[in-house]
Write a structure and sequence with these properties.
By secondary structure, the protein is α+β, with helices and mostly antiparallel strands. The protein has 5 helices and 9 strands. Helix 1 packs antiparallel against helix 2.
């Protein structure tokens, strides 16, 4: 009888281990799918921007081709006028005194031809200036394309880094992140309530939990501004950008139970004004310039991602 009980207990323990392992794999697959969706969105945005810039470049190339065609037509007309002017000059030189009226008419035609040639030359210069301007715009567009691609690749790499190395799933991982020294971390526990819970530089309240799908509804209070975040998944970071901070705030939920959550708020140690002051004090004195800092000029605003 005792051996039968021990056998049942062993099978129960093994079953629980298999269930826990299966649950861990499912959570890992969900996290990988979420990361794939984020990377897919960034790639789609990059494709849209590049298509728009390529379309603009094609339009500029078409405009340059049209201007070059007009420039060639104007050059042909000027050549014909110059030939006619030369013929008239030769006719005037060989005309006799008795053909004074004919010579005068020829001279009048020559003057008209010269005036038209002057107008064509002015138009030619205008067309050349337009071609040069279009070429400069084309070069600027190509530079913008290269810069945009670089920025998008940098944002994509930054997103990969944030997904892979900046999310703490446990208290121990949070302690490891805090030891890096670049940010402050504030853990919190929030039960479903209408009252706000203080967590570092912001307050938050829990509106709803969905343990089956591992997501929650939160309301964040940042600088007297309420931000609603519905369907926030487990381990999904919420980035809050403020103009006075060099880096955004981050809110992460790493444990969800019925009507209760646990998570943390990550904030930069130094604001934009403090970083500017430190840079100014560390730099050697050169020359002074009156003005107002960027942090003072821009009003505080909040946006989430």
């Amino acid at each position: 009888m005792e051996e039968y009980q021990r056998t049942n207990e062993s099978e129960s323990v093994a079953e629980r281990f298999r269930w826990q392992a299966t649950r861990g794999r499912v959570l890992l697959i969900l996290f990988i799918l979420a990361a794939g969706v984020v990377l897919g969105v960034y790639s789609h945005q990059q494709s849209i921007v590049i298509r728009q810039i390529v379309s603009r470049e094609a339009d500029l190339n078409a405009t340059i081709a049209q201007l070059q065609s007009q420039l060639q037509d104007a050059t042909t007309k000027i050549s014909g006028i110059a030939a006619a002017q030369s013929a008239l000059a030769n006719a005037a030189a060989t005309a006799s005194q008795s053909d004074a009226h004919a010579a005068a008419a020829a001279q009048s035609q020559a003057r008209s031809a010269a005036a038209e040639a002057t107008m064509q030359s002015a138009r030619l210069r205008q067309l050349q200036a337009a071609v040069n301007d279009q070429q400069m715009r084309l070069q600027a567009t190509q530079t913008d394309i290269a810069r945009t691609r670089t920025d998008l690749e940098g944002n994509l790499n930054s997103t990969r880094h944030e997904l892979n190395g900046s999310i703490a799933r446990t208290h121990e991982e949070l302690v490891a992140l805090e030891k890096r020294g670049a940010r402050d971390y504030f853990e919190f526990d929030a039960a479903k309530s209408e009252q706000f819970v203080h967590a570092g530089p912001l307050n938050l309240t829990l509106s709803k939990t969905d343990t089956k799908h591992a997501n929650v509804d939160l309301t964040l209070l940042v600088n007297d501004q309420k931000l609603s975040k519905k369907g926030l998944n487990l381990y999904e970071p919420v980035w809050i950008y403020e103009t006075q901070d060099a880096q955004p705030l981050q809110v992460v939920i790493n444990k969800i139970q019925k009507n209760w959550v646990h998570g943390y708020v990550s904030a930069p140690k130094y604001g934009r004004a403090e970083l500017s002051a430190n840079s100014a004090s560390a730099a050697p004195p050169t020359s002074t310039r009156s003005g107002t800092s960027d942090a003072a000029q821009s009003s505080a605003s909040v946006r989430t991602r």
